[in-house]
Write a structure and sequence with these properties.
With about 220 residues, this protein is an all-alpha fold. The termini are far apart. It contains nine helices and no strands. The longest helix has about 30 residues. Helices cover about 70% and strands about 0% of the residues. α2 packs parallel to α5.
């Protein structure tokens, strides 16, 4: 087979079990790095599991228990984001030693965050279905929010979930920039600056755009 000269970052190069170097590296002996990442994966697993169950509840029109699980899931992401501060305790130079044995391991391979990306769109679809049943647009829901309190609270929780994902991405980008720099290539061959671009992504753009429309409506009435 003729090599293309381009490294295949999809294939793990570290020994051990796991589909990616990220999963294999979680068994590292570097305790601070290991603790933060393993703890984060546990919180992420709880978070996406709660969102997945909340979506099933919404599909069965069980709104109150769904709200409780979404609130818990959002809190999980808050914990994960807070834990990133520990990684800033790594010396930028000493981290280079760790980086050399990461293989192709990257946060993009995080099983927990991949699952979050998988379960979040169905949550939005379930919420949109509830709004359609009531004959409401997102803007109409917010204008008459107190007449549809449960739906209003669900929309706010969905937005909080989306916001927490963005805050995690932002914090992660800043930690990476602080430790290895913001103009370098990561372990998976991805430029660090790409992480900054992901901060602008939204899972529920209609909920965010509704704010612009509400402000415009208020100005028109004023």
């Amino acid at each position: 087979m003729v090599s293309s000269g381009v490294e295949d970052y999809d294939q793990p190069v570290l020994p051990g079990e796991g589909k990616s170097d990220y999963e294999r590296y979680l068994r590292t002996d570097e305790l601070l790095f290991q603790t933060v990442h393993q703890a984060s994966e546990l919180w992420l697993k709880l978070a996406w599991s709660e969102v997945e169950e909340a979506t099933r509840l919404l599909e069965r029109r069980r709104l109150q228990p769904a709200r409780r699980l979404l609130a818990r899931a959002t809190l999980c992401l808050e914990y994960v984001t807070g834990q990133l501060e520990m990684l800033e305790q790594l010396s930028p130079w000493e981290y280079q030693t760790i980086r050399k044995v990461l293989g192709h391991g990257s946060g993009f391979d995080s099983p927990g965050f991949r699952a979050i990306r998988r379960v979040t769109p169905p949550l939005g679809q379930a919420l949109s279905g509830l709004l359609r049943e009531q004959g409401l647009s997102v803007v109409e829901l917010y204008v008459a929010g107190r007449e549809h309190e449960e739906l209003y609270q669900l929309a706010e929780l969905a937005l909080a979930w989306d916001e927490r994902i963005t805050l995690w991405r932002m914090r992660h980008y800043l930690v990476v920039s602080r430790v290895i720099g913001d103009q370098v290539v990561g372990t998976q061959g991805t430029p660090v600056e790409l992480l900054g671009g992901l901060i602008k992504q939204r899972f529920f753009p209609e909920l965010w755009q509704a704010r612009n429309r509400l402000t415009a409506l208020a100005s028109e009435e004023g």
